[in-house]
């Protein structure tokens, strides 16, 4: 698997915990050159030490700020002169029933889960077009395929990620750029900590009893990156075997 991963320059947003962190660990072990972003720089700095990364390879950034996403991608160019993969992974899931009117949380999900992904595309695409190569991996969810009570806004954002990614896929053919959507089911991370609706939190805790470990996601991402250039893995959906929705 490391054959097509070794020495690739890979940018990951939301690498301070959960899926992003685990993916960074796996890809570093496979010889990738990483540039990692998130708001909690202390966690990124610890990870950089663990993974023996260049100290410039971690950046405090907020994906809701376009200039900060651009700075993350520009950092990859400054250090390595190119960008082979961006994983637009940062996300939030403060799910709630709509009638709770948690409008600020709706806004945050739209800003992080949709606009954050768009800013990642905006930052990386011009470099990838110039290189005539690259891979843009956007993290959606099973919730990008199915919606249930309490999940309307989160699912809406993850549906949007799939729509944007499919449009992107069709547009970037002339530049040899690959696009991948990864849509996981329940995986044990910090994601559910953002839920403030107590009823939803209880239900979610039940669902997450059978959550997978983050390595499941990291392996899927590594699989998509490791394919030969002519193979474009466009979407992977996976869940715990016992997850019914
Ligand atoms: N876990 C699951 O069951 C599951 C299932 C389907 C899809 N997903 C998706 O997987 C992705 C990763 O989530 P996770 O499960 O790994 O949860 P997590 O452990 O909570 O990680 C979320 C990451 O996103 C970062 N982040 C959040 N807001 C940010 C912002 N404004 N700017 C920059 N970084 C930000 C966090 O870092 P900071 O707080 O340090 O900024 C953290 O590194 C999300 O898009 C999520 O929707 C997860």
TrEMBL record:
UniProt keywords, alphabetically: Oxidoreductase
GO function terms (MF aspect): oxidoreductase activity, acting on the CH-OH group of donors, NAD or NADP as acceptor
Coiled-coil parts of chain: none
Cited SMART domains: PKS_KR
InterPro entries for the chain: KR_dom, NAD(P)-bd_dom_sf, Sc_DH/Rdtase_CS, SDR_fam
Domain called Ketoreductase: residue spans: 8-190
Keyword Transferase: no
Presence of keyword Hydrolase: no
Family: Belongs to the short-chain dehydrogenases/reductases (SDR) family.
Name under which the protein is recorded: Ketoreductase domain-containing protein
